[in-house]
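INTERNAL TRANSFER SHEET
From: sequence group
To: structure group
Subject: HTH-type transcriptional repressor AcnR

Please process the attached sequence and return the structure record in the designated field. Keep the field labels unchanged so the import script can parse them.
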Amino acid sequence: MVQVPGSSLPVPAPRCYFMGGPRNAARPWSIRGISVLLAPTGAPHQGPVTLLLPERTTVPKVSPDHMELRREQILAGARTCFAEYGFEGATVSRLEAAIELSRGAIFHHFADKDALFLELARRDTESMRDTIAEDGLVQVMRNLLASPEDYSWLGTRLEVARRVRTDNDFRAKWADHQKLIDEAATARLVTQKESGRVRTDVSDKVMFTYLDMVLDGLISHLASGGDVEIAEEVLDLVEQSVRTSE
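Return from structure group:
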């Protein structure tokens, strides 16, 4: 009889025979990668060996719908955690508490915390891109002032801006996502210029950079509890600066 460390109940096993003569049972050896120790200890063994192998278990199948629901649960909880603590402050323990799942369950779906944050940022970028394409950057800023709670990407955008400034690796990963925003905003500007609503004496790149800087400033202003009425007047000034004179 052979005792296999970590085994549970005995199951039928093949009969194994020693080759090349007796082996000292006091020394561990292995069969197909399983470490075993012969008994009785110290006695040479020349007969057949019966293995006690771990009990086989069947892994339950999980439906794609269940997997998707679990991912959405993870992302929703992570968004709350990142918004409250920021990326650095959102420790794994805090993520577990916010998501109400173990770290094993969380990181079964996402490789690490960075991958989790990037997925949130990717989704928020697409949402922001669609809003810009529909309404333009200035209107996006007005909507932010009117009802910031309707823009789930607001907190993520703040964290993205901070990490782009301070984290070279993240800046490289973020480049493709930022490109989506740039393309949507530039396409909107081209359309506005063609319709005669936006001045044409400033290049698209300069115009977009100007509005993007104003957007980042507005988000920081709101995050720090700045005066909303003053911000509205600033946006009036911004809009006047990009519109054609009528």
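Handover comment: The chain is about 60% helix and 5% strand. Residues 168-194 form the longest helix (27 residues).
Transfer complete.
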